[in-house]
UniProtKB/TrEMBL annotation, chains A, B:
It is found in: Cytoplasm. Its main location: cytoplasm. It comes from Streptomyces kanasensis. Belongs to the RuvC family. The RuvA-RuvB-RuvC complex processes Holliday junction (HJ) DNA during genetic recombination and DNA repair. Endonuclease that resolves HJ intermediates. Cleaves cruciform DNA by making single-stranded nicks across the HJ at symmetrical positions within the homologous arms, yielding a 5'-phosphate and a 3'-hydroxyl group; requires a central core of homology in the junction. The consensus cleavage sequence is 5'-(A/T)TT(C/G)-3'. Cleavage occurs on the 3'-side of the TT dinucleotide at the point of strand exchange. This is Crossover junction endodeoxyribonuclease RuvC. InterPro entries: RNaseH-like_sf, RNaseH_sf, X-over_junc_endoDNase_Mg_BS, X-over_junc_endoDNase_RuvC. GO terms for biological process: DNA recombination; DNA repair. Mg(2+) 1 binds at residues 7, 141. It catalyses: Endonucleolytic cleavage at a junction such as a reciprocal single-stranded crossover between two homologous DNA duplexes (Holliday junction). The keyword Cytoplasm applies.
Length: 177, 177
């Protein structure tokens, strides 16, 4: 499974592509940051993010795009920009028929470090180890994008099993009703 | 001046086109709502909004798109969807090189009713009167989109004069420094 992780932001939008399946070593196919100038107007910044995401989709043809789920209660100052950048990433993926999955920051931290409250350094260290990199990806947004992709690959089988179990239970209830 | 007003929302995105200049009677060229199903996933909803906005831009070729400025402190439950829908509207405009202007809800209410705290009914009534319509546009999101366009047409000359005054003052300071 090939996943593009996107850590959305207007100034720095982290992007990282990871390939693999749960239980096997993972491979990093690319990592980077789509940047837009803080002094540009919002419309042009969104156009630049769209262009950047499109290039990553063209270059890596991911099967799924994993985007950080934005919460309105955190970082009120920057949350609007984050929501807007995430909208562009989801739009680009859905327009191509690529499924989008959302994961919360604590789900991502818990997936790669074992703790939902791990700090940036810990996430960076685990991403480096799990992908067998020479050094932690910089900036942190790039490492977070890889962590999102890893989180999705590892959580997907559990989510699928859960969905199958729920579906089976509903079907069995339907038979006994 | 022809302005497309957009009252952003995931479930109902109000759109309205107004033509005119400040100090002259205004003309409504179109009004409507782009709707997306609440049970669709977020990526597909954003694609549907993009398609809807594109159709309005194609049909009316506005010179400017006026979008409601979203604040994170209001309506925390729905603010993320509003921010994401507004991102799509701004992206569609900027991609075509159409300038985007943002106005706050209270600027819009003050422009059309004289009070920044006017209610929906008052805004609807004034939009109906100012555009000489037979009845208030329904739903409220459609009326709000028209109010945004009117607000922009009326505020633009003042904003231009202000910018010119600031520029003149800076230039004069530059000469005396």
């Amino acid at each position: 499974m090939r996943v593009l992780g996107v850590d959305p932001g207007l100034t720095r939008c982290g992007v990282g592509v990871v390939e693999g399946v749960a239980g096997r070593p993972l491979t990093m196919l690319g990592v980077g940051v789509v940047r837009t100038p803080a002094d540009a107007d919002i419309g042009h910044r969104l156009v630049a993010i769209e262009r950047g995401i499109e290039e990553w989709l063209d270059a890596h043809r991911p099967e799924l795009v994993a985007v950080e789920r934005v919460f309105s209660q955190h970082n009120v100052r920057t949350v609007m920009g984050t929501a807007q950048a995430s909208a562009v990433a989801m739009l680009c993926a859905s327009r191509r028929g690529i499924p989008v999955a959302l994961h919360t920051p604590s789900e991502v931290k818990a997936a790669v470090t074992g703790s939902g409250r791990a700090d940036k350094a810990q996430v960076g260290a685990m991403v480096t180890r799990l992908l067998r990199l020479a050094a932690p990806p910089k900036p942190a947004d790039a490492a977070d994008a890889l962590a999102l992709a890893i989180c999705h690959i590892w959580r997907a089988p559990a989510q699928n099993r859960l969905q199958q179990a729920v579906a089976a239970q509903l079907a069995s209830k339907g038979r006994t009703a």
